[in-house]
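Now for one record.
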Amino acid sequence: MGCITTYTGRHFDPVCPERDEIDIRDIAHALSLICRGNGQVKTFFSVGQHCIHCAREAEARGYSNRLILACLLHDASECYLSDVPRPIKSAMTQYQAVEERLLEQIYIKFLGTALTKEEEEQIKQIDKDMLYYDLLNLLNERLEQKVPVMATEFSYDVLPFEEVERGYLELFARYEAKMGEEGVLSTELFELHYNLSCQKLAGDISGTLLENLERIMNFFKLEKLEQKVLVVIYSDVDVYAVHVAECGQEYREWMIADTFDGRIHILSLEACRESSSHAHMDREEYARLIVHEFVHICQQQVEPNCYGVIWFWEALATNLAGQVMNPVALECSRDELMFHYQELPAAYAISYHLGKYMLEHLPYQQIYEYIRNPRALWSDTENILESAGNFS
């Protein structure tokens, strides 16, 4: 196949790309000159500026340095292939194959590896959210969908291409350097992302998960997981709070871990201790917290619907993780437990004692039926609450 001559004077074959010939200067320069939307916009807006917007949004959402850099590079193949509108691209299967192969080589060149499926989905979501605002600002076209909530604001002013090129290269340099501050620990069942300051903690988390995976999966009758579990450790509470808000939840001071998006997000032990609710957390408690979140991952795989039964999810997670809580009066109604759980003053302790009662007094098959079919638990909740109260 033929080659194209790049800005830096290289002769590059996009169909059979040689990784050593990929140059970030060619990418930044070309993307600053390629117009978004095939030029069908009110004013010039470059693909490079769009990529910068995506990277800054990833940064504001608290994503890893690797993912921020991937957002900056997500359209980098267009510097060699040009920007083809989505409706046309969908009919060009050969073009798509070339683009995917080339983009994979770009990611390997600058990130060290190709993206995981989870990373691809996160980037696609940001790109999709950004498209809504690109169309609104550049074409006055409003897509008929829920308005995406963005973590930052963007300018659609026409910028000199030299300024966009320089900004692109500066962002690249900043996050390429920061990439060295992050680590990834990968096994067959989970992938753990952490700041290098948490390296020992990452090893502890990995060991805890490996010790408990089989036991928890057996409880939920799972022979395998649908996909590798992504685990992200946050050393910064504020960054974790951004993640919680991004998931559409209200951040509260006692929050230290979650599986809102099907992944495990957890504060480092040091960051947990910054919370007054967890100031005295020790390593054993922290290890149980990891198992607690993995219980939720398995529970979500069996049945993701938790409406009206969040208390039950926490009942299983606290008990299967080996967490122990002080006795508490089960003074709440069925409706409070089912529909106002987060407002209960001792919600987790209530769940723990309800779960302890159920695991000790109900047949396993009945509990598993509640997991598989939450509606079956609705009619039984009041009896369980009353029986557990009498037991305690």
